[in-house]
Design a protein that fits this description.
binds adenosine monophosphate; binds zinc ion; five-stranded antiparallel β-sheet; alpha+beta; HIT family, subunit A; 138 residues
């Protein structure tokens, strides 16, 4: 399924150009136009899903299998020291394009990438209650 006026549906279909490093029937992998680091790329399903809340498990499994191959390809060519996988869902989480996408961001000493949060302190009673309530949905 595709969504009208979705930028990544158009990129997926090749209607808007992208620097694609890999595609198959289900996915396209292309370089981010405003890279956080050298080699920053995005994996998108060709089907439209707004967020992870809509993505089905089979597509997610295939997408992550592909991510392992892309990650190894980037590492082999770019000699990066590490890699962040980032996946934003919702405006609050920093999502700007509402077509599911996974960022692969190679990391290098001295780069300017910033994927950080302030560590909090767990309330163990609350964690146990959440483990039960959230776990019951899985
Ligand atoms: P997010 O903030 O997680 O929704 O990420 C959206 C990403 O899409 C950003 O990193 C943008 O730089 C990238 N982006 C937006 N338009 C294009 C485009 N036409 N080609 C490649 N990347 C794009
Ligand atoms: Zn779309």
């Amino acid at each position: 399924m595709r969504k009208d006026d979705c930028l990544f549906c158009k990129i997926a279909a090749g209607e808007i150009p992208s620097t694609t490093l890999y595609e198959n029937d289900d996915f396209r992998v292309f370089f981010d136009i405003n890279p956080a680091s050298r080699g920053h790329c995005l994996i998108i399903p060709k089907q439209h899903y707004d967020t992870i809340f809509d993505l089905d498990g089979t597509s997610a499994a295939s997408l992550f299998t592909l991510a392992t191959k892309v990650a190894r390809g980037l590492k082999a060519e770019l000699n990066c020291e590490g890699m962040n996988l980032v996946q934003n869902n919702g405006t609050i989480a920093g999502q700007t394009v509402f077509h599911f996408h996974l960022h692969l961001i190679p990391r290098y000493t001295g780069d300017t990438v910033n994927v950080q949060w302030q560590p909090g302190e767990a309330d163990m009673d609350e964690l146990k209650a959440l483990a039960e309530s959230v776990g019951s949905h899985i």
